[in-house]
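Lab manual, section 2.4: Encoding a predicted structure.

Procedure: take the sequence of the chain (248 residues), apply the prediction step described in section 2.3, and record the output as structure tokens. A sample record is shown.
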Amino acid sequence: MVDGLRIAAEEQIQAIANRLRGFGGAITTRVLFGDPKAVIVDRATEIRADLIIVGSHGAGGLRKLVLGSVANAVVRFAPCSVEITRAKDGAGDRIARVLLATDGSEYSDAAARSVADRPWPQGCEFRVFSVVELHMPLFQAPYPPYLNPHAMENLRGEAMRRAEQALQTAEQIVTDAGLPESSTVAVPVASPQELILQEAGDWGADLIVLGSHGRRGLSRFLLGSVSEAVASQAHCSVDVIRQTRKAA
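Recorded output:
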């Protein structure tokens, strides 16, 4: 049975490799056994991969991108950037609209540079999107800010300035690469991930690109984070960008 599985897998990846050879570049193939979640991440670490591309569905069909699925685990634990690909019904594989979500963090800037550095189909449209997030201080004398209208107004103003600065930085990176773009700022009436998903759906995006971490630093790419929520719930393909390793 194991020999049969290996032969079938090798035939499948050879067929895929043959399709890719038309695009140039060195191609190697490998069949590995084990838990896909662990094997994919371990292999990417071993070869120092810059990008993992994984489908959002498994061989059994249905919507498998849920907690515990291969795609979700790879997005969460991969040492590099990850693209989760979704086929669009009746639209083919062409990417025509790319939504770049940014919060002005260094991780968002890495996502913008990733967009700027790629070759895109002619006529591809780009939209830079930022959500105004209120960062509440834990303590503020004499009252919490939500009981102080003046403090709340200051928080809103600071949040708007952060969002606008995030847009300007990402826009500059994209336009310097000669890519046409538009931009949008969303005032929070829902969570950032909900607003990003809504913008992507309303605009008909084919791809969402965003950083793996947010402005508040540390390792925010955990259950419930914006990046993971967008990757698992989007109707289109999603790129979660981790910063490129610095050369030794």
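Check your result against the sample. The radius of gyration is 20 Å.
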